[in-house]
């Protein structure tokens, strides 16, 4: 795993996202913290979850992390005060979460902290900027793949995807799922600036919209993107080049569209980023093979995958075999969190 | 916000109010609690005008200093809860101490800017003593932690803790690491205990300054809100009202920012409204579309603002302090409460009449009783005008009913289309084919009428301009002539 540090070297903001609980995300985090020790202070925060009550937030997985003196971290006030490092308050951000205001602090000793950061992209971006301002050499953001998270790893320059045996007892299923997730996350960015411009304008106030071949666009008023397929189908005119969808895109939306028209062929569907795609392989394949295309407004740069062969449910995969099999399917580096290869 | 049940949106108050954007919670608090000055508080009202005038003067002379002041104001966090807790003997946590330290730092900057800008009405107490408590090493940076210099014991504990942490880092044996971590945990507990002791002491020391903090909250809020009021006054060229003891209201060239800005957007200008009222009833008559309503709303708005300690949107304003200000129209609010327009008006009107009998104030009646049958409506309006004319309150009535004005009432008329060449207007109308042409020709200014004059027949003129059926107009004109003859 020591190569992970080399991989993240060019980037200032790095997110680590786990496909499930217990896939070793915290181990990765701790590993980086450990390896970076003595070289430069790190900044740390996490992507919080929005709209959940305090109980739910408290009960979700939040890693207790052992950090080095000098580390800068952004967490909610409650966790800030609870941390057992000698702590210096650097800034109160005015960003509020169910667990209190986000505080940026510096560790004046080693010790344990718990991290619960902001839940909105702009707030995480701001917090990261501030940590860099206070001298962090890199900012690590602990994230998750969930429909409940509003914020996304697309705000970081690089992303590490953590997966492991916790996903399924069937090693092939784990690999298959991971490969699909990687594929969805790294979906290509739309490159045409004029299209991007129109798309962002649609998303300012609306959930969906279509862009025409002269870059003009039409916003469509729907309550949620989940029920949008009918409106999308109705608006798939010949001169439409792109369909813009805010938020999560599910199997059902694509299925409904595929079933009711073939006008999606040759058109590009734009999503905010790859974390918004919750699709199974079959639907995705049908959609792509029959001429549809999916692109992201903001790209996610997945630089490596970490695997945890151990499951908390009492079984484990053969580490070497797991890693080999994963490498066969995936063309970016794969690291085992439980030891160097 | 509620003053005498006036529809604040309708008279353009909300539009003005929303432009006030205080930078601090202390200023917002004052904005939320604006109060209506009564006669007995005349001195305070006058003082508020003086202070506002001073700030306006300072801003005009020293805009740069005020930009900086506003910049600093943005930085003040709401530490009221912490100070309240401190007052009650609670122990402040590190984040609270950090915010208090920053408050002191920002206050220092604000104080020096205030003296630079020569603002004399705002008094802020120095909190440098508190700042020194929270910056024991004299580093002069805004961050905060429980500094080692607070206690020798803390210093020792932390040094030991650091030593063990070094050992933990170098140790490879899991067992040894666990043993060291156990030792570290004991030190963490000792550190927390000692930190708590220090936080208690710091909180106690700070609690002696609670009054200074609270007075500073008020001072900052006052400054913040004064600046907002001053910016508003400068933007619309508002004037300091003169408070008089005579039974007279004089408002020269008033404007209404709400209407003004709407017209401006359409590339049109607002015709300033001049109105002079003496005790009793003042009636505004005139054409439909002539802006009678706007005259009433603007006058109400300005009188209200004057009583709330604002400058008035006029070139000159003089009025006595009033006990109440009312604005009655067939507003929809009361209608939605299940009353008919007319019913709602009558209930409101009754309330006004009973207050006029006992107190001294101002009431604007915008086309009251327009919704009921004209014969009775006319009688009611005329009776109200006549009856209220004998009291010392100011009653400003707009009506399109004829013959409401008595000899001893003030009477204004919208100039309207009186001086317009109707043939020209008609040609113009034919070319542009828009009803807005009439608005362009309309003279919205008010003209003082001496003696009795009847309401101009602009309704018929406008109907003609809009190509209303000629036959119908002819019949209407005959009816009018007959009616006149009958009256004579």
From TrEMBL, chain A:
Source organism superkingdom: Bacteria
Protein name: Uncharacterized protein
Organismal lineage: Bacteria, Bacillati, Bacillota, Clostridia, Eubacteriales
TrEMBL record, chain B:
GO MF annotation list: ATP binding; ATP-dependent DNA damage sensor activity; mismatched DNA binding
Keyword Nucleotide-binding among record annotations: yes
Keyword Nucleotide-binding: yes
Residue ranges annotated for the DNA mismatch repair proteins mutS family domain, each copy included: 279-481
UniProt keyword terms in alphabetical order: ATP-binding, DNA-binding, Nucleotide-binding
Gene Ontology BP term (one): mismatch repair
InterPro entries: DNA_mismatch_repair_MutS_C, DNA_mismatch_repair_MutS_sf, MutS, P-loop_NTPase
Name this protein carries in UniProt: MutS domain protein, family 2
